[in-house]
Every structure is written in C-alpha cells, then in structure tokens.
Specification:
Layout: E1 4-11, H1 15-22, E2 24-31, E3 38-42, E4 48-52, H2 60-66, E5 71-78, E6 83-90, E7 93-101, E8 110-113, H3 119-130, H4 141-149, E9 167-172
Antiparallel strand pairs: 1-4, 1-5, 2-9, 3-4, 3-9, 5-6, 6-7, 7-8
Length: 176
Amino acid sequence: MGFRVQLIAVIGEDPSAVQSSYGVVPTGRHQELPESPVVGVVLPNGAYLLFINDEIAPNDEVFARLSERASLVAFYANETNMESYVCAWAEGKRRWAVHHDSHQGLKHLETTGALPEEFPAIRDRLLAQQGDTEDTDFVFDIPLELFVAAGGIRYYQDLPNAGPKPWEVLSRLPAK
C-alpha cells in the first residue's frame, strides 16, 4: 500500500474562495500531518493548497471551476498503481499536463499543451536515471518534480517552516 493523494495549489484566490469553489468549509481543527479526507494550507509562495485523501481522481470540471479567476497546478499520485499526473490551469482552461502510468510501461509519459521550461531537464534527468532499471520507477517522479517546480510541495514531506499543526481540516458540504 502507498500514498494515493491529490494536491491542488491555487494561485491568486483567497483560501475562503477556494474552499467555497471546492465545496468544503473549515472545521476549526488543525493537524500535524495531512491525514483527514481534505485539508488546506497556505504555502510559502502564497498559493492555497488543498491536500485531498478522498475522491482522489483528477477532475477537469473541478480544475476548471477552481481556475476561473485564478491559476492552479494540480498533482495526483497513486503509488499502488505507480501512476502520477500533473496539470496547470488558468482562466478555466487547461494549459498543460503530464501523465505517467507504469502499466503502460516504465518509460510511459503523455504530455499535452505548452509545457513549462523546467520540463525537458526534469524529464531527461529522470529518464536517464530510469535507463534499463526495472525495479524502480523514476519516471513516476516527473509529474511530481514539475509540481514542485511550479510552487507545490512533495506530498510525502513536511511543510518547510510550518508550525506544529499547519493543516486546516476541511469538511465537505453536502452535494446540491
């Protein structure tokens, strides 16, 4: 078993507006680690990050809604299936995306859109590490490294310079 998470970093929108668009409300509780179904935190770069441990499939409708008046970078990791995905949205439209699914091969990589300038160096470095190795999936980290380069965080590491309980627990609103 491994991580299965989705992170959405929204830039240029107040946390309360992001929460409202995503359909969650603050509970007033905080945690040391992002273990609840949905938690949020303001990142050092000012982006508001939703860390999602439930309903974890990338969803273009959600990304379009959250990026209507802002921009976002979203990352999905499923370590059980060794699948990872990153995308960037602005003004309700997807700008670029990178997807790796090891079931389609350890070197599988799908890309769309105008990728960020960091992409070639990240891709080349991790593909070189992959080489002929079949016991480690280095290509899985390409979407993650792009997410970090765009201002996100590594989902398995602590927040830099965060207090003891930086993660605000959010509760989903009932579906309308």
